[in-house]
Design a protein that fits this description.
16% helix, alpha+beta, five-stranded antiparallel β-sheet, Immunoglobulin-like, disordered N terminus, 2 domains
Length: 315
């Protein structure tokens, strides 16, 4: 614990590392009321986009969208991002960040970090929790009062060994392996909360999806990782949408890159009601240790996504 305290104090207190301004570099196609995120394929619209752009640090605070807008099982209009969830307040017509830090925090789950508490480098909040050093710098520089909310924990050491602190709307982590000014990051709690809860809530379907395209998410794998020459291999493709619901009748194109670099494409196949497609392929007279790479592309309603796998000829 003494080593952790010294490292944290030296790098966060003595040097007072500068906090970089939020990056705004990203790939997108946009209008004034709509942004299509090329990195994830999801669209941010209207009031949700207005809130997303209300800060110059949107990628640091929110990350990329990981769903479209939808009505959740409680009847609320929401959208998930890597680091946050946005909620639409019907009464006010405004969007705000959901308190996912509060939802995910469990008191006593992690050990409290002994980082000291230099009063000149810390701030005591009205609820009794203190934010110190680079966490406080980040909080102030990124308008944490608006976007992160109040602290709801002390600085702790999480399961991965990182110093961390929970706030109402998010979680800060300190990563000593990152460069100067980039060591404080907002954890991907939007993704974590989505993965933990959405699967256990009624899934948004039909009219509950607010004109959001069903974006295919693809997994592909082979029945065997190692095969013999002049045999066969079975390839499985699983296609779900952004809500983890199976996509039926998705067109699957499979391209095999052979050991000599040439490509072969199979005839199109289609997913069944469970979002699954499979195909048997013949394996030629390849040499031991040759690798065949597989790329599966799923297309439905003009939306496409791909995934890759491989198998090796071993005898």
């Amino acid at each position: 614990m003494g080593i952790i305290r010294r490292i944290f104090f030296v790098l966060l207190s003595l040097t007072l590392l500068p906090v970089l301004a939020g990056t705004t570099s990203r790939g997108y196609a946009q209008t004034t009321t709509e942004w299509v995120c090329e990195e994830t394929g999801f669209t941010v619209r209207g009031e949700f986009l207005e809130f997303y752009r209300s800060t110059n640090n949107e990628l640091e605070l929110f990350g990329y969208p990981i769903t479209g807008q939808f009505v959740d099982g409680m009847g609320h209009r929401v959208q998930y991002f890597q680091k946050a969830r946005f909620d639409f307040d019907e009464a006010t017509g405004l969007v705000h960040a959901a308190p996912i830090g509060t939802y995910l925090y469990t008191a006593g789950e992690y050990e409290v970090a002994d980082i000291g508490g230099d009063s000149s480098l810390c701030r005591l909040f009205s609820n009794g929790y203190t934010v110190c050093y680079a966490f406080l710098q980040f909080y102030d520089a990124k308008n944490g009062a608006t976007y992160l909310g109040m602290p709801i924990s002390d600085t702790e050491i999480n399961a991965a060994g990182y110093l961390t602190q929970f706030f109402e709307n998010g979680v800060l982590e300190w990563h000593p392996e990152r460069g100067t000014g980039q060591r404080v990051v907002v954890a991907d709690m939007g993704r974590i909360y989505y993965e933990r809860t959405v699967g256990f809530l009624p899934q948004p379907t039909g009219d509950n999806i607010l004109n959001t395209p069903r974006i295919p998410q693809v997994d592909v794998f082979t029945s065997k990782a190692i095969v013999s020459a002049n045999s066969s291999e079975e390839i499985f493709v699983i296609v779900k949408d952004q809500y983890q619901q199976p996509l039926s009748n998705a067109k699957i194109s499979i391209v095999m890159t052979l050991p000599d670099g040439t490509e072969e494409q199979t005839s199109p196949i289609y997913t069944n009601a469970d979002g699954i497609a499979k195909i048997n392929i013949s394996i030629g007279n390849f040499e031991p240790r040759d690798v065949v790479n597989i790329k599966a592309t799923a297309t439905i309603d003009q939306e496409s996504a791909s995934a890759k796998t491989w198998f090796r000829v071993w005898w």
